[in-house]
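Two folds, back to back.
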Amino acid sequence: MRDYDEVTAFLGKWGPFQRLIFFLLSASIIPNGFNGMSVVFLAGTPEHHCRVPDTANLSSAWRNHSVPVRLQDGREVLQSCRRYRLEKIVNFSALGLEPGRDVDLEQLEQEGCLDGWEFSQDIYLSTIVTEWSLVCEEDWKTPLTTSLFFVGVLLGSFVSGQLSDRFGRKAILFATMAVQTGFSFLQIFSVNWEMFTVLFVIVGMGQISNYVVAFILGTEILGKSVRIIFSTLGVCTFFAVGYMLLPLFAYFIRDWRMLLLALTVPGVLCVPLWWFIPESPRWLISQRRFEEAEDIIQKAAKINNITAPMVVFDPVEQQEQLPLKQQKVFILDLFRTRNIATITVMSLLLWMLTSVGYFALSLNTPNLHGDPYLNCFFSALIEVPAYIAAWLLLRTLPRRYVIAGVLFFGGSVLLLIQLVPADYNFLSIGLAMLGKFGITSAFAMLYVFTAELYPTLVRNMAVGVTSMASRVGSIIAPYFVYLGAYNRVLPYILMGSLTVLIGIITLFFPESFGRTLPETLEQMQKVKGYKKLLAISGKKTNNSVRKPAKVMNKQFIEKNTSGPNMYMKRKYLSTLIKKICLMQYHFLAYEIV
């Protein structure tokens, strides 16, 4: 029986139909770039200090010295959460005493910001932080806001795969677009932080569901050669375009409610795409809806000015694919055998730890020195060459090696930041951007890699579940940024170490480069990655010898993963990891002291 790619090969690789699907699905991702990172400006925290009531009877000298000062980056700034006790300084002012000359300010009693805060408007006119005073004792709500958004993304990742596998790619794609746009609009009318965050959770659910389903739909419609371009230069680059437009909007619209309104408008413009984007023929075939699938292929041939066969899907082949509909799939099918379970567990780790690095670096841009709008733009801009590099690497090199390579590069660069003196801020920013370049490249490749590993029946579910695991990392990421308040290099040490670790794990994946997409779970079980793990651990498998090609593969594995050579490699790797951990421990101890 011919596979789908062979049956539809007459359509060509890059005709008008493929270009239309490519650009329309990519364009539908632009609003995701807005909503995914909008929290950087919606929840921005400007400089602030305790408010002193205008009714307080204070001289100008005491009013100017009513808030203690502290050193920050070599300059004196007002403390954010403390002021001198108002009752005391009013008495001193009434007695005609001068601060610093007659009264020792260091010995003066302090109190909290009982009358609220005054926020600087140099960067933001208003944010949810200034609106609801999410500072000092309430500052824990700011990272929680971001984490709750990613909780919604987590739930959306879990639900979107199963819903689109059951109800179709197209219906769920546009339903999640409506959820993302509609609830973003409702956020404008939030009356408190609780209402804003509940709506933000729902926006997160729609945001990731739209992204994942659009990716899967394009992967299943487009041909093998275009598939890589779509998943890198298409989906990912258009996400980066939306991300780059975000600081542009935020620069000119500095009120959070008006900014949110402006960011919801592009979602409305995606409504007409319903009449141009078709359902996935692969999914229709898996549901035995062969006539609908053939109708889509016939229309595609007409758009490409190609004469299609009278019958694209032969009736005999349709009967052979009949069991495909009867085979119900659930999330537990991703763990059906030891081979599939091993691949799934490693995929979950790969997505989660890569996500920690990507989102922590993205959310940390306001904390970098310089203009936050420009830093955010550079953080988005660096993603474009990262996606281009991912595309070029995926075209010619094995998946697991290139993913491991860029992860090693990104993690190593982040670990170097701890060696940069505090005065060389520009160098730290440059290394952070290079680190994001490597991690972003790896992130772009994960969608292709995961989609190629799993068969059509569970492909969308697999991408959804593994993407769900990445959201666990994104939920944690805001607190990596939060650690920077205690030690400026600690977030980079943690991110760099985790990135290098997952780069090592990636080397144990099976290779999918140059293989036809599997259609059934049985075809997936033929992936040889599990045998490689068994060979490394010294175990054997019952089906280790089936065909001459597999015998050769087994001999190759045994040759390279046994004997003194492998023992020396393991011993060297173990010693190297121990030395790295010991070095990081001594450095942290030095920083704390």
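---
second:
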Amino acid sequence: MNDTEKPADTPSEEEDFGDPRTYDPDFKGPVSNRSCTDVLCCMIFLLCIVGYIVLGLVAWVHGDPRRAAYPTDSQGHFCGQKGTPNENKTILFYFNLLRCTSPSVLLNLQCPTTQICVSKCPEKFLTYVEMQLLYTKDKSHWEDYRQFCKTTAKPVKSLTQLLLDDDCPTAIFPSKPFLQRCFPDFSTKNGTLTIGSQIVFQDGNGGTRSVIELRDAANGINKLLDAKSLGLKVFEDYATTWYWILIGLIIAMVLSWIFLILLRFIAGCLFWVFMIGVIGIIGYGIWHCYQQYTNLQEHPRSVLTVYDIGIQTNISMYFELQQTWFTLMIILCIIEVIVILMLIFLRNRIRVAIILLKEGSKAIGYVPSTLVYPALTFILLSICICYWVVTAVFLATSGVPVYKVIAPEGHCIHENQTCDPEIFNTTEIAKACPGALCNFAFYGGKSLYHQYIPTFHVYNLFVFLWLINFVVALGQCALAGAFATYYWAMKKPDDIPRYPLFTAFGRAIRYHTGSLAFGSLIIALIQMFKIVLEYLDHRLKRTENTLSKFLQCCLRCCFWCLENAIKFLNRNAYIMIAIYGRNFCRSAKDAFNLLMRNVLKVAVTDEVTYFVLFLGKILVAGSIGVLAFLFFTQRLPVIAQGPASLNYYWVPLLTVILGSYLIAHGFFSVYAMCVETIFICFLEDLERNDGSTARPYYVSQPLLKIFQEENLQTKQQ
């Protein structure tokens, strides 16, 4: 058989993409006589890891995670921290929340008003002037009001003196704690936004303000606190449902194992189970979205928009909007149509996928330890992620309190300069900018370490990406070595050596750490460029025009294509490294040439198989997701009673779905790597051997036959 023959006047594929492999009677699979490859990259990688460890230790010494957990007043003191004067004052109070609409909120990440720690939030409307009038009759009013003043405040100051000293707020209004901060207690009355049943109120300076102004000011702060708000509530939901999430993930693991075992015996039948299951799950989602959409049309729950509700918006309230369910329904319909169309147009190639899956099942059956390897990958990835998060938190909380000048009116030449709150009122800045404040801004310093903290954040992110991709590369190379050992055994399983996965893993670590680091470095650099692109897009969002948007979309698309192309080449390079033990560049070149010499065979192989495996992942995640949805929304009382006190039921639901998909991806990626390794070995087998008694093929006859048939059909087309 010679699939690559061409007329004499046409350059052959071999001439363009190197010479094909020749028969070697001594070749029996992955070579054992190896040497270290890409040593320079290995040394750089190890130095980066040592530097990463040193960075973590230095950040540990200088950082204080409490600074991220506790709100901080204008003097840089924590609210609610034990052993401090604010131990019983756990809530942050803003003197003049209306100032938080200033542009300096986003520029300096601080609201330009005095902030103090209090034990509770105000419960009524009251101005400082009104309090003075009541104080002459009943001094208890001052005791209530002084809770929201500095300790040096007195009840007999004039309004002018009060504004100069900034000891007390000019007015207080009904509030409630939100993220350990006092925020307006908004409510709705006949579809109108109110606070304390009022839509206007006195600001204490002789002016009248509306609730809309207060909402805008609160939203200004809310932009800085959204992430922490979500984080705290998500943490509460995780604390309530962690064991149910764990049960769901265990079920996903068992289900993935069952599917992998069944693939060995009933691959064809299981494929149709995948198809029907995925189509059915998506269909159920479409039906549910339609039901919710029609119910909200008939019985609308609110006439307010999300913008009207402001900081009171509960994320679950998105699901009370008709537009949300309509959008989800359209998305699911599009996905359903795509799946059905792909099934129709790929029906002739599904046979190839099924045969490859059966062959992969045999390989995994003879090397069962490969099914346990995803657990090791998961542990290594978890360690990398945890170390990155902890280091990032300690870096972000390193330093000493830094105070900066904040001008409420935004008209001060000294704004954003550092200052000392102890002597600020006696400085020239206070005289030049009446009303300016010296407020806590962030934690930092003037040492060399503090000056390079932004650089350390970039280094932390880059090494994290490098390590994540290295762990993935290590797993792919180890699995490729194990499956290549299986393929090149003439008599299976008798000729398969003991512990092929352990041997392949040891070779990858001992000889090819540099090559794996080289390949993962390329992916990490591309991912870093993508992150920089997204950062620039975020920073320039307000100034961008149509042309810049178009260029950004083109760049995103190009980087996405580049990343996926490099990942494909890397996987095949790792297979070559596992078999021949050469350096990364030589292995990538050999893999590319081999694939291009057999481009017709490549066109009918593993992409269809990946689609089938992707359906399997969707089926596992979708099945567990449907059960989790019914459980967390109290719709399975017969089986078990779900948790009733959740902030967002979608938190554990999405966690279970995402976790189930990742678990299924871990197990099915073993299959994907198995199929790709077998395919590369199959191409090598066709070039090395001719199927005769002296040079027999190592591939199974069903796989060889179906490839010959598909190749013939492709040529005829």
